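Work Package 3 (structural annotation) set out to generate three-dimensional models for the target panel prioritized at the project kickoff. During this period the team completed the workflow that converts sequence records into discrete structure tokens, so that structures can be stored uniformly alongside our sequence database. As a representative example, we reproduce one entry of 352 residues exactly as it appears in the project archive.
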Amino acid sequence: MAAVKGGKRGTQWLVRLVLAAALLALLALSRSVLAQTPPAQAQKLKPEVRKFIAHMVRTHDFDAQALRDLFASARSNQDVVRAISTPATSRPWYQFRPLCVDDAQIADGLRFWNENAEILERARREFGVPESIVVALIGIESRYGRYAGGFRVIDSLYTLSFEWPKRADYFRGELEQFLILSREQGWDPGLVQGSFAGALGWPQFMPSSYRRFAVDYSGDGRIDLSTDTADIIGSVANYLREFGWKAGQPVVAPARIDTADPKPLLDLGLKPQLSVGQWQERGVQSPPGLVESLPASLFTLDVIDGPEYWLAFDNFYALLRYNYSRNYAMAVYQLGEEISQARGQLAAIGSD
């Protein structure tokens, strides 16, 4: 009897063992299926977003699930679309200038220059860009860090890449660079704040510019355009040099037109193509002392009394590569001149 009872128990044990093994195999299979199946929120992603994720996984070895989760949290922002559709730089010059060149900006710029004079001087020596230009540009971009952007960069770039068709290819490229930059810097891309266009830090670098032109100017082993003043200054100067800034050359010069129809001359564009001497042959008069061989372009500014004519040189074009707006480039130049004059006046008073 004992033998018979032991046999039944052995059989029952074997059955339980087989059932347990089958259950474990089923659980493993279900986990594998779940791992390969996107969650419900990821299944709602647009086809072009899923295609972009696949590109990032294939080309840059990103984690697909992490990107699905990130884009599932991204939000289309109509404030972004409104801001980029009607930029402040599109206003007439007489309306735009007071937004950038005023007593507060001059005072803030003077303070920033005084606090960082040594670093600014070093940048001028190494990159050839005057202190006044670097200081003014940072002031116009972010008011020295006070207005560096209140948008989630992932929302801005998502909106402009997938919800705004006008420059979608460009902004998808910036979105790609932003994700790579976030990985390099150890940022959480869902938390990074920037401008409506996805620009970052005090100098408002787009992600591609951050990766290409930002420099560790403080020498601490990392690049920080949000809190490290040396990195901010060095990166702006480096950017302008890379885009053709020429040390010691002028930015603009006032011009007078001695021709009935200046339109054909203005239609030549903002990139310097003719020399000062060639412009003079075409009826464009400029102040004495300009080197006649200097390449220049011709542009106008809208003032209340009518158009104001200017010759622009390679350094003006370098500013345009930062923001392709004549209003923007002129505001940087004029604010820099105002700050430089204020600093000179203070120095003169102090020497008395």
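DSSP finds 17 helices and eight strands in the chain.
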